[in-house]
Hints:
Elements: E1 2-13, H1 23-40, E2 42-43, E3 47-58, E4 62-63, E5 69-80, E6 87-96, E7 99-104, E8 107-113, E9 120-123, E10 129-132, E11 138-139, E12 144-155, E13 160-166, E14 173-174
Parallel strand pairs: 8-13
Antiparallel strand pairs: 1-5, 2-3, 3-5, 4-5, 6-7, 6-12, 7-8, 9-10, 10-11, 12-13, 12-14
Amino acid sequence: MFLKVELPWNVVIPPANLVAKGLMLKKSISLRLLKGFAAKKATKDHGYFLAITTVESIGEGKVRRSGDVVYPVVFSCITFKLLRGEIIEGVVRHVLRNGVLMSCGPFENIFLYKDLMPDYRYVPGENPMFLNEKTGFKIVKDVLVRCVVLGTKWLEEEREFRGLVSLEGDYLGPVS
């Protein structure tokens, strides 16, 4: 789900970038904010950071001993976070014996366990798949699959999420 959040951030401007007041200073602060924002990637509470939409306010700068100036900035941004019970569409990246690995937007590790795919059975081979013999639907690599989110797990060290999804529900499965 896409979320709009407002966040505070401290932007550090080195003395070399302190050219003048006004537009050049605002541009320098905005560029530093974007650089720091891109390095952050994601947080447990907000999900993956996608884009800064507006800079709400830039506070008064405080000079450090090093000569750098720290500006408190409040900005709005768009984030992406999977929520329990949400219906998503993910692209199959790998078909494994015990399930399917998918991705959805910035979420690269979404797992669909074989026991959470009613009426599908694993078919090994050169191009492994999960086949529904009643409908003929196939879950193979690069197929788009509609599923429901059961939960997510935040991995602090990697600064990323893992997700678990299911096909148990109406209108879930491969999308044609």
